[in-house]
Every structure is written in structure tokens, then in C-alpha cells.
Amino acid sequence: MFKETKTHEVTTDVVIFTIKDDQLKVLLVKRAHEPFKGKWALPGGYIRISETLDDAALRILKEKTNVQNIYLEQLYTFGDPLRHPNSRVITCAYFALIRSDDIVLSFEPNTEITEVKWHPVNSLPALAFDHKEIIEYSLKRTRERLEFCPIAFQLLPQKFTLTELQKAYEMILMKKLDKRNFRKKFLSLAILKELDEYTKSGSKRPARLYSFDKITLNSKRGHFFS
Amino acid sequence: MFKETKTHEVTTDVVIFTIKDDQLKVLLVKRAHEPFKGKWALPGGYIRISETLDDAALRILKEKTNVQNIYLEQLYTFGDPLRHPNSRVITCAYFALIRSDDIVLSFEPNTEITEVKWHPVNSLPALAFDHKEIIEYSLKRTRERLEFCPIAFQLLPQKFTLTELQKAYEMILMKKLDKRNFRKKFLSLAILKELDEYTKSGSKRPARLYSFDKITLNSKRGHFFS
DNA sequence: ATGGGTTTTTGTCTCTTTAAACATAAATCC
DNA sequence: GGATTTATGTTTAAAGAGACAAAAACCCAT
Questions:
Q1: CA-based nearest distance B175→chain A, Å
Q2: Which of A108, A136, B209, B219 could form a disulfide with B159 if both were Cys (CB 3.0 to 4.6 A apart)?
Q3: Which residues contact B174 (CB under 8 A, 6 or more apart)?
Q4: Of B8, B52, B76, the CB nearest to A81
Q5: pLDDT at res. A4
Q6: Does the predicted TM-score (pTM) go above 0.85?
Q7: B222: region left, alpha or beta (phi > 0 left; psi from -120 to 50 alpha)
Q8: Maximum average pLDDT range among A26-30, A187-191, B101-105
Q9: What is the sign, positive or negative, of the torsion defined by CA atoms of B219, A185, A220, A214?
Q10: In the A/B pair of chains, how many CB contacts fall below 8 A?
């Protein structure tokens, strides 16, 4: 079906998660052209001939969301010969968690994309290519990482309450956690800074705000939550 | 330095570990041509336009070593624009552990390779490209996996003694383990089948042989050794 | 101002698992 | 019988999981 003389094309796709409106969401773009015209897809693009894979992913992340300085990690390389209907495209997927309040979706309509939007991961539309599979794999990996290092801070604003932190964990792990045990565990890790501020929220007891103190991403052996 | 119009080339390189002569070794091939003519390198090759990445890695593994049915896992994709001196080559690295007694190095001298040999990982020669980096990363990942699932069985013959198993772990983790605790732990996991055979070895007490019973690769949460 | 509703905050106990340390007897060969 | 290697249990301490209840702070409505 393919001529063996055809060359490969190499792209990168970026899975960006955030928490908005109490939901875990992923950033998608709507395609302007075939294939999959009008369908939602992960932000992605061709890797330039003289940039590293990491640089390509960072560039694309910045182009779509204007976000920088992010925990961005190579996820997996997807290379099924049939994943792209027209040609052989191998894609190196990256994933990131970002704070929703850091985000300015600086989208200027262009020739490739007609829309950029956050979608709840629990109700995704039909996606282009194998992007659904990529997102699912990314979620799985995010959960695995969450057990070992507290990457959830990437999802939260600079100042947050323990309840917000717990909700982030519950959303990613998709299960409820015990409130007292959760707090106990996190406070014992000594990675949170207790602030002298409180939420001036609504009709309830104000909650103390915390910020992450030292963020040591790859340290911390041992489980957080299982 | 590169024209942006140049196309990417995509290869796969396979890191194959085994235990031979009481050492952890990696399979290398000697290159017949430039670049890096005469240097040792990982077995690798171009991904065909209509095969999956996994298939490409399996094919190359088979071409070089005649080994099949192997725990083969995508490791990482290396894409530094300067990793290949002549052109832009992105390589998708895989790694595998194999039993030394399964191996028939069926090497027929050809136009690309002049030699195939196992090299102790502790004393590697100068390697082509970034292959040293790939091997080191692979070792790191192997160690991480070893903590969670007992993949070391891939390195051992069908029948083995507990001492051999322990030595495999010690070689990969590069530290000594307590004999009693090691045996206790493994026997409690109920993944070994106790055979009614013994080594008819040399001048010492014969050791009982074991084989792996059910091999559940991705199961088994929880640490094995840390 | 009072009371009801809601959310935050905090500590203890149990049970299980894990880590680490440690010594002696048995089987074989010479 | 001497050398070597296999085989085997117990104890201790530490860490982790999980279950569980009551008081305090705030808002609002009456």
C-alpha cells in the first residue's frame, strides 16, 4: 500500500492537561483542513529539521497557548503506518500539566486551525487520527507519575487550599480520598508552605492557603497515593 | 546548517542486555562504513515505511540475534539534530533483556557490519553516535522497572537457582542484597515454580532449580527492591 | 442575635507491610 | 574432616493504609 521509497514525516503532538471548572480538561484544536477537517485534534506540528524534539514540543506548546516553563515530558512515539490516512507520519507525543491561571489562549485564527478550546477529558468529542489513544495513554502515565511525585501542583494556582489540592488528585486518579489522611500525608511531606492568607470565599469557613515550597520533581521515591 | 527542506530519517536502535560470564552485557555491532566506520554501535536500522515501530524493532532484533518472543519495550526517542553527523536522523530506541542461552548470534558478514559481539556494560568501547547515552538511559530504566516487576527472569535460563537470580538483580542494581531476605521475598511472591532438579555442579552443595511460573509482566504493583 | 447550614481543621488507633539485621545446619566434593 | 555453597526463621523497628468524630469559623436567614 505504501511505496517503500516514501519518506517518513515526523511530528510532535502535545497533550496539555489543566483543571478548569472543577474538571480535568485537555487542550484541543479544531482542524481547518483535510484530513479530519472540522475535527478536534491535539495541538501538534512538524518537527523542524534543526530543532530537538523537546524544543519542538515547547515551541508548539508556546504557539498554541503562550505557556512556557512547564513540566513537559516525552510520552511515547506513535508510529502505526495507518495512523495518518494520507502518508506515513510518526509522532512523538509530549505531555504537560499546566495551571489554568497561567494560561492565555492567544489564538489568532489562521490557516490551520479554526478554534482552540479546553475539553473535559470525560466527554471528548470524536478526535482526529489516533489522538484519543494518545490522550488515554497520557492520562495513564500521569496517574502513574502522580503516585511518585507531587506533580499535581502544576495544575493549581500559586496559592491554593488543601481541598483544591485533594480535588486535583481525585480528579486525576478518579477516586475519592480520605480528607484527614490526605492532609496528614501532604503536610508530613514538608513540601507545602503554609501562608497567612485565607480564602474570602462564600458562605463557609475560610480555608487556609498554601503554596508549593521546594518543588523537587524527580526526587521523592516512595508512593504518594495508590 | 541544515536546510529546513531536508526530510527526517527515522531509525530504531535496540539495546539488548543479557548476562554472560557473570556480567551484564549489551549487544553491539561494528560498523563497516562511515560515519563511525569501525566503531561499535547499537544494532539499528531504518524503519520501513509500512511497518510499526514495534515491528521494526522486533525485525532488527531478529535480524541481528535471531531472537524472538521477547520483552521489548519502547524506551525513548532521541532526536538531537546533531546526533548524526551527516543528516537529521531521529531514532526510536527500544530495549530488551534476553536469556543468554536463547541466543544464537547468527551473524553473516555483510556490507553494513563486520562484527557482532557482547560487551560488558562496565567497560564499553567508544561508541558511535549517541549510543552511549542511549545505553545509559536504558540501564536506568531497567533498574526502575526492576523495582516493580520481576523482569530479571528474561535474563536467566529456563531453569535457574535462586543464587543466579539474586546475582542478576545485583548486577543490574549494582549493589549487594541480603541472601535470606532476597529468597524470602521471592518465594513469598509465588511466581517461582520449585523444580525437583538440582545443579550437579562442582564441589559444593547442589542448588535447587526453579523456573518462572506465571509471568505477569505489568501486574504487581509495589516495590520489589529499592 | 440566634440558630442552621456548610466547610475547614485536627489526632488516634489498628492493622499490615516492609526493611534490615543476624547464625546455623545440611549437602556435596575433595 | 575441611572447604564451600545452599538453605532456612525470627525479631525488631519503621512506615503506610485505612477507619473514624468532633469542634471551629464563617455565612445567611430568620
A1: 18
A2: B209
A3: none
A4: B52
A5: 45
A6: yes
A7: left
A8: A26-30
A9: positive
A10: 81
